[in-house]
Amino acid sequence: MQVAIDGPASAGKSTVSKIVAERLSFIYIDTGAMYRAVTLLAIERGVALSDEESITTLAKAIIIDFRLIDGVQHIYINQIDRTDDIRTPEVAANVSAVSAIAGVREQMVALQRNLAGEHDVVMDGRDIGTTVLPNAKVKIFLTASVESRAKRRQEDFQSKGINLALAQLEQDISARDYKDSHRAISPLKKAHDAVEIDTTNMTISDVVEAIIAVVKKNQ
Ligand code: C5P
Fold first, then answer.
1. What sections of 68-101 are H helices per DSSP?
2. In contact, 101 and 50? CB cutoff 8 Å
3. CB 3.0–4.6 Å: which of 12, 59, 100, 171 could bond 183 by disulfide?
4. For ligand 1, atom 8, which residue shows the shortest CA distance?
5. What is the pLDDT of residue 71?
């Protein structure tokens, strides 16, 4: 069974997807982390973001695997744990440019489909219901106001000791959403058969229950 969860930046996708996957005993696949991984390596290796050919070569060679350690999902990039490194403001600011490259998307989508072919999955991202798993039995589109998404992101960073202004975060999130929804290849878009959930005034557990209810209805 495939559960596709899409939506704009910081709508709470990964938090609720993880819990939904745990509840269903499915594997959780965070596709945003995969694009962040390619972006991190490109920055570290000094590859210009405009150099699509070199970034595509990098995406073809990257080894990404997710490992569950003490109940927390870690991302290993080329065998090294880079879980925190992919979440920096610098990676967030550059990931939309990297994820818009055709060769990068081709590689990542192939990896994602392989993973989904082997397990029951909850997969979150931007194009899961529209492109990666168009036949997913359950498709959810999670949204929330920009203000509430910026607030959540601010709290996430605060818990890691990074203080960022709310106005700046709102601007960053809106800019990333704009780029993700206006790119040429598989832009962020609600699939026609997705169930939309506006999480602005919902708790995490409300959202989890709402998604589980959709899954049960379709099982
Ligand atoms: O979900 P997260 O915020 O970690 O995603 C980071 C970025 O990766 C997004 O802003 C988008 O540019 C890209 N992405 C994508 N397609 C996906 C998942 C993420 O293009 N399926």
1. 89-99
2. no
3. 100
4. 32
5. 85
Question: pLDDT digit string (tens) for 118-157?
Answer: 899 999 999 999 999 999 999 999 999 999 999 999 999 9
CA of 96 to the centre of ligand 1 (A): 7
CA distances from 55 to 23, 35, 61, 89, 115 (A): 37, 11, 10, 20, 22
Residues of the chain with pLDDT under 70: none
Cα separation values, 170 from 82, 150, 174, Å: 26, 5, 6
Residues with CB under 6 A from ligand 1: 9, 31-32, 35-36, 95-96, 99, 125-128, 176, 180
CA of 176 to the centre of ligand 1 (A): 9
| Helix/strand/coil for 90 | helix
